[in-house]
Specification:
2 domains, 5% strand, mainly alpha, elongated, 5-stranded parallel beta sheet, two-stranded antiparallel ribbon, Rossmann fold
Length: 485
């Protein structure tokens, strides 16, 4: 009996060792990834029909090869398991029937299965420490990429998701979205830090990473995706600016809706501005409903004991191109514009442009991800807004004067709305974050509940190498900055 048990354990060990040495898990994962890549290509709205057909054919061929690779690995593992049994039977240590009799016993199967499961869990946890999921799309698995591409395969999918969410909302009370807050500026102006600080207000509801990729159905998607059980470790975002994020961190996803209603504006090399003549009642109604959906999602996640969230707040840098539109379509809104010293702002834009150019060159899904959520601020996807007076062809995007010129044209346009927007200066946020944010809270009618705002803003003064800029253009930019101040 003891000999039969020992031989059976050798057989199990041989089976597992053969599977491990031949990396059958990696091969199986590759087969699944290949299959998902082929299906994903069919939903990729950035591929032509010919490219989709070629991708599907290539995936089919790889799937056939992957099946053969799995077959010989399984055959080798069965051989490794059978070898100890055959040798024991031949040598007379234990008969093959006795060994198989032990292996088919229920208690033996249960004990070995539990031990194998425990070993697999320990190994999985050790591997997970080195390979955490990235919430910005840089390390999406093949399944995550498939779900993302399905959600963004066309505006119809996100609109359908919104309609399903609306049907759910009719069965429960939903707070109305009044006095929405739009935080906007050029990228790298401090909008993320301001959004994080506003997110501390108990009345405020924002988009969070947990809403991805079905952004228009945050409640429904959160239930499907696992609710609070779904999470990732906090980590620095791809910008490399020290800000840490997880699934519950606020982020800028509102642009997806604008892309859904004005897709033609994003097809050129630059994006035209929105004016009051571009008003679309259907888009406005959809956005209002979406604001209510975000408020409802955050209230459900917060629980009944917390303060009811009633104010939708978004960070959307692209809203700098549609301030006139927002003021007309949402007359009760408040627009908050962080303003950074032009030379510092332009220098930071150039750094991130170079950073994302390299990231997008290394990982095609990062490019797809940024395009889908409407982040065209920098990198190989860069599409500047066509601000009045801006001529993108004058300098290359990897030159500091390009970004300074862009800053001039953007903020010169905002001078027209000086009395209608709340301008928040980066210098003040760095020098006196508590006083500055408390003043903003008071202007927006938000509750102050012992928040400490110093953690959101860098304490050191903003500085840049002014010698990198054309002196005349730099003076023009500074004139605009002081006119706003």
């Amino acid at each position: 009996m003891i000999a039969a048990i020992a031989v059976s354990l050798l057989a199990v060990a041989g089976f597992i060792l053969a599977l491990w040495q031949t990396n059958i898990a990696g091969t199986a994962q590759h087969v699944v990834s290949t299959c998902m890549a082929g299906v994903t290509a069919l939903f990729d709205n950035q591929l032509s029909d010919d490219a989709k057909e070629a991708a599907a054919r290539q995936a089919g061929l790889k799937l056939l090869v992957g099946g053969l690779n799995l077959t010989w690995r399984i055959a080798l593992a069965l051989t490794a398991a059978g070898l100890p049994i055959a040798l024991a039977d031949w040598s007379g240590i234990a008969t093959g029937a006795a060994v198989l009799g032990v292996m088919l016993r229920l208690d033996y199967i249960v004990v070995v299965s539990v031990l194998a499961f425990a070993g697999a869990k320990i190994g999985s946890r050790l591997r997970r420490a080195d390979t955490e999921e990235h919430v910005e799309g840089g390390q999406y698995s093949s399944v995550d990429q498939f779900v993302h591409n399905l959600a963004f395969s066309g505006p119809a999918i996100l609109k359908l998701a919104s309609r399903l969410e609306d049907r759910m909302a009719r069965q429960s009370s939903t707070a109305d979205a009044t006095q929405p807050v739009f935080v906007t500026s050029l990228a790298r102006g401090g909008t993320t830090a301001v959004l994080n600080a506003l997110h501390d207000a108990p009345e405020v509801a924002t988009h969070i990473y947990r809403d991805m990729p079905f952004l228009t159905a945050p409640v429904l998607w959160n239930k499907i995706a696992g609710g609070p059980k779904r999470g990732v470790r906090r980590r620095q975002r791809a910008h490399g600016d020290g800000l840490e994020i997880d699934l519950d961190s606020p982020e800028a996803f509102e642009e997806v809706i604008w892309k859904s209603f004005w897709p033609d504006r994003y097809r050129g090399t630059s994006i035209p501005l929105w004016s009051t003549c571009d008003t679309d009642p259907e888009a406005d109604q959809f956005l209002r409903q979406h604001m209510r959906s975000i408020i409802r999602a955050r209230n459900i996640q917060a629980g009944p004991k917390d303060v009811l969230k009633t104010i939708y707040c978004s960070k959307n840098n692209a809203n700098i191109a549609r301030v006139s539109y927002l003021l007309k379509s949402f007359p009760d809104c408040r627009i908050v514009v962080p303003v950074r010293r032009p030379e510092c702002h332009a220098e930071s834009l150039l750094r991130q442009h170079n950073n994302f150019s390299m990231l997008q060159a290394r990982n095609s899904f990062v490019t797809r991800y940024m395009s889908d959520i409407g982040h065209f601020e920098f990198g190989n996807l860069h599409k500047p807004f066509f601000f009045r007076g801006f001529e993108p062809e004058q300098e290359g995007t990897h030159h500091s004067d390009y970004w300074l010129h862009y800053w001039i044209c953007a903020f010169r346009g905002l001078l027209e709305h000086k009395d209608q927007c709340i301008f928040l200066f980066q210098d003040d946020l760095r020098a006196a974050p508590q006083r500055t944010m408390e003043a903003l809270y008071d202007m927006l009618g938000l509750s102050r509940t012992h928040q400490r705002f110093e953690r959101y803003f860098l304490p050191k003064p903003d500085a840049a190498t002014v010698g990198n800029f054309d002196p005349k253009r730099l003076q023009e930019a500074r004139d605009i900055f002081y006119a706003l101040k």
